[in-house]
Amino acid sequence: MKKSWLLFFLPQDEFKEKKLLYFLAEALVLFILFSISFLLISRFFNFKESSGVLLTGIGLSIVSIYTILRYILSGIEYTSVFSKADYKSEVKKISLQSIIFMIIFNFISILFKGAPQGKENWIDIIGLSILIVFFLFLMNYISLKTSYLKNKQIEKDAGQ
Amino acid sequence: MSNNVKEARLAKSITQEDLAKSVGATRQTIGLIENGKYNPSLHLCISIAKRLDKTLDDLFWED
């Protein structure tokens, strides 16, 4: 019997669920090691009060970046992409999603900040959205590629 | 762990995708189970056995 509020955030598939729990647990261990290292170092150096916020930020970044990277590189996101046609269709989907995200992001930016005045402000908003969308697309693409390769390997192993 | 899931599934003419949907798993997970690369929980084993009209012994017992 599984009883944890964390299950609400985890996928239904048990293999994916188990993998994600491993990634989160590994990230937590890294976070604990980082915290212990900081505590030991802080005995010898006098940190400014504001460095606490910075170190909390670093700790949270370690947990989130590690978990996301492990997830992307594990190839467990696109579990049904087995054929070249599926793969190409998903590439189109993630490209479209990225473009839609960029439009919504720019729309919300203009809605809250107002229409940019001058060329530089336009470049600021569009440049930022292009950068975010580029990383978003890259993350999805790497995840798709690793998933596709993993699925192909499963098919290859089944044929042997 | 080797098993007879693939043979039982093919005998019933069920695709990996269909089996995955009916037991609440993904096609990737079913592929890994069939290849003996992932040991499923007892809960999932029972779901697969029921879907394929087999016993746990038929699917997972090694002679």
UniProtKB/TrEMBL annotation, chain A:
Parts of the chain that traverse the membrane: 20-41, 53-73, 94-115, 121-142
Key words, A-Z: Membrane, Transmembrane, Transmembrane helix
Membrane listed as a keyword: yes
Record-given protein name: DUF3278 domain-containing protein
From TrEMBL, chain B:
Highest taxon above the source species: Bacteria
All copies of domain HTH cro/C1-type, residue ranges: 5-59
The entry's keywords: DNA-binding
PROSITE patterns (UniProt xref): HTH_CROC1
Keyword Ligase: no
Gene3D superfamilies (UniProt xref): lambda repressor-like DNA-binding domains
Statement: the UniProt record of this protein carries the keyword Transmembrane helix: no
Signal peptide: none
Listed Pfam families: HTH_3
SMART domains in the cross-refs: HTH_XRE
InterPro entries, A to Z: Cro/C1-type_HTH, Lambda_DNA-bd_dom_sf
Protein name: Helix-turn-helix transcriptional regulator
Species this chain originates from: Viridibacillus soli
Highest classification ranks of the organism: Bacteria, Bacillati, Bacillota, Bacilli, Bacillales
